[in-house]
Specification:
Layout lengths: L2 H7 L6 H12 L1 H10 L8 E5 L8 E5 L4 E5 L9 E2 L2 H21 L2 H10 L6 H13 L1 H21 L10 H31 L8 H11 L5 H14 L4 H12 L4 E2 L3 H23 L4 H10 L3 H9 L6 H8 L3 H14 L3 H17 L22 H9 L8 H7 L3 H5 L10 H6 L10 H16 L3 E2 L26
Length: 491
């Protein structure tokens, strides 16, 4: 008698919803195998016990890790020697796979939806994202691998880019610029989907560790577009405490360069890694309250001692100029100080007003890069803008941010964006269709070229890098705690 037959005979041990679930898994082998993959099973366990209902001693379907049936155990029977998974996780996996099947039926095939991911650029709609979310829940590793592949292609383009090669915009150069722009949007969408799928169970994908995923997110933010950076910080916030060691390592590598300029591609990369890592810290703190105190203390340590004391004494005051003077122009220390102030003064009402004003500036043409008013007449003031419009506009910000004046505008809205749902990065399809001609959503080779030229020039310029002095172990800690440095920030 085969295992499958034995399994069917033992179904007499269960009834009700438990029997329905067992039969669903038996009738569709692809559903069972997909659920086992989705559960991210530990290596080594050959037999897997699937609880068919909640409870202290539920019935189990006993299967192999390859998806073959062994037997069915009734309530109270112990699955000795088998790896027991959570019933809630099993239910979630089955529901997500069923949703994917529904998508397959509705759209005809998954490739249609994936094609939108590659082609849409800033015009990916909220409905498109929700469809992609279903696929990412089932095969999250695909989006990680896609992000890695595109990252390598985009970074290769950036490494080869020279302004003189694009002085004349003919058909070939326009196509290359538009391809680059499309890919840089695609990686932003892909990392958002990967981080969103990860956040469901706070687990990592088979063959992809937290360090690799964090590095992917850091490099996705390198492309300099405000929307990409905000999506990167959102994704870092999803990883939470798991991302912190890598982020702190990147900042330490940058600080370890000492008081000298970033003069080559490697050092410019270290600088950008440190910048994105610094921006990610307030996003993580906003989403994970238990980490807030640790992150605030770390951000303070990035600020030079004299200004640090002034920052603590007057957290509402603008200290950016003082930080730049004390560090000799280290704008990453400036970002750290501004991030600390944003967290320290965090107020949901103020944050909402801040995001409304930034979105208003983009949408009404106050931003000089935009010459098209997309505001519906029913929203005559910034405070009238609903979040359903504000947050997607910020998340598709096309302006480059690797400039101090742009960073100052980005930092205060990072916590607000970090708290939203992944789908809130996108506008509904109906509104997008009304904005076909708006330059905020229309790729423009000249604007893409201008951004690349600016980033190329910024990378070529000397960037001051100053390592803040470290107090002596027995000196008072500069964070203002009153303790010795060795017992406070120097631990």
């Amino acid at each position: 008698m085969g295992h499958a037959t034995h399994f069917l005979q033992r179904l007499e041990r269960v009834d009700g919803p438990a029997l329905d679930l067992a039969l669903d898994l038996y009738r569709e082998p692809g559903l069972l195998k997909g659920a086992l993959y989705r559960l991210n099973l530990p290596a080594g366990d050959q037999h897997i016990a699937l609880p068919l209902e909640q409870g202290p001693e539920p019935p189990h379907a006993l299967v192999t890790r390859e998806g073959h049936y062994v037997t069915c155990l009734g309530a109270g029977m112990q699955p000795t020697g088998a790896h027991v998974v959570s019933h809630a996780l099993l239910r979630t996996a089955v529901q997500e796979l069923s949703a994917w099947r529904g998508l397959e039926t509705r759209e005809g095939r998954t490739q249609i939806v994936l094609g939108r991911l590659h082609r849409a650029g800033p015009r990916l709609s909220r409905e498109d994202f929700e469809d992609l979310r279903v696929i990412a829940a089932v095969i999250p590793k695909y989006f990680v691998e896609l992000g890695i592949e595109i990252r390598d292609r985009v970074l290769d383009f950036r490494a080869r880019y020279r302004p003189r090669d694009y002085e004349r915009l003919d058909e070939a150069t326009r196509r290359r610029l538009l391809d680059y722009d499309r890919l840089s949007w695609t990686i932003g969408h892909a990392v958002l989907l990967a981080a969103d799928a990860y956040a469901v169970e706070e687990r990592f994908f088979p063959g992809v560790g937290v360090e690799a995923l964090t590095h992917l997110l850091l490099r996705a933010g390198h492309f300099g577009r405000g929307g990409n950076v905000l999506r990167t910080t959102w994704a870092m916030a999803r990883l939470g405490r798991h991302a912190l060691p890598t982020l702190k390592e990147k900042i330490a590598l940058f600080q370890g360069m000492g008081a000298r300029a970033a003069t080559d591609a490697r050092e410019a990369t270290l600088m950008r890694d440190a910048l994105i890592a610094t921006l990610a810290l307030p996003a993580i703190a906003a989403r994970h309250t238990p980490l807030r105190a640790e992150i605030e203390k770390y951000l303070l340590r990035m600020v030079p001692p004299t200004t640090r004391a002034e920052l603590i004494a007057a957290p509402q005051k603008d200290h950016r100029e003082a930080i730049l003077i004390e560090t000799g122009g280290n704008f990453i220390a400036e970002v750290a100080g501004l991030a600390w102030q944003t967290l320290h003064n965090d107020d949901p009402t103020q944050a909402r007003g801040r995001t409304q004003r930034v979105a208003w500036a983009i949408m009404t043409g106050v931003d000089p890069r935009i010459d098209f008013n997309l505001l519906p007449p029913e929203f005559p003031r910034p405070t009238d803008l609903p979040e359903s419009i504000v947050l997607p506009v910020l998340a598709t910000l096309t302006a480059p941010i690797f400039q101090p004046e742009m960073l100052v505008g980005i930092v205060p809205i990072v916590p607000a964006v970090a708290r939203i749902d992944a789908a809130d990065h996108f506008l509904p399809r109906t509104l997008l269709n009304e904005l076909t001609d708006h330059p905020h959503f229309r790729p423009d080779p000249e604007r893409i070229r201008a951004t690349l030229n600016d980033q190329y020039g910024h990378s070529a310029r000397a960037t001051p890098i100053v390592k803040p002095p470290t107090p002596g172990r027995n000196d008072p800690c500069a964070c203002g705690s009153g303790q010795k440095y060795k017992k406070c920030c120097g631990k």
